[in-house]
User: Fold this.
Amino acid sequence: MLKSRVLTAMVLLALLLLALFWLPPFGWSFLVLAMVLQGTVEWSHLSRLQGRQANLYWGATLLLMLGLLWLDASAGAEQIRYVHLMFYLLSAMLWLIVVPAWLISGIKVTQPWLMMLIGWMVLIPTGLAMIDLRAAAPAPWVLLFVMGLVWVADSAAYFAGRKFGKTKLAPSISPGKTWEGVAGAILGVSIYVALVWTFSAEFSRLQVLPAMVLTAWWWVVLAVIGDLFESAIKRQAGVKDSGALLPGHGGLLDRIDALTSTLPLAALALLFQGIN
Assistant:
């Protein structure tokens, strides 16, 4: 399983870097659209939507994303800014208020319309953030920096947890996650940020992301919340993985769970700093 997991991760990383650096904005936007739609399919499965209900949800997501992409291509910068800001604020409300309360209370949400709404709040801001962060100067390094931070946290937590994990983080939600894994993630992210800030010419000479760098541990907390939330949703649905798209990783949502809770808030931070 570890071999399959590492091989899949290497292939995905290579393909992502090619797309990140070589695709034109139009092509990147439609790659993001495909990712959001795949996430919608998996979320429908986790929400137990079937048949007509699932198809309507998928179709509505497609129309909504196409409408947002059309807005980005045709509207003025100020209008785009406020529309994206609305989605990022909804995402912030979800991850900073709703999800922590959800995880602490241990409630189960079974209403289809509410699960649909939550799915949009998870996926659509993530898609918009992937577009906005890629376009932020120095493009596309800001998006790669934030995604790298989450990947380092995830990998460090995985290996630290396997090696030293004893104290369960949230046994009722995800028995495999430990506080030792979280400590490993914090250490890994601290080293990552220090290396990037020290050796990257793009970031060392640019007054960009100061709050994000100084509060790197906060992004670990967000990543953990995103990871735990997807684990809670999978446990509610009675499944181990969100899908079978990626060998060794499960579905797309299994791979991007921590990104859904971090990328939109990173884009929100940049939006408030006026970098976009």
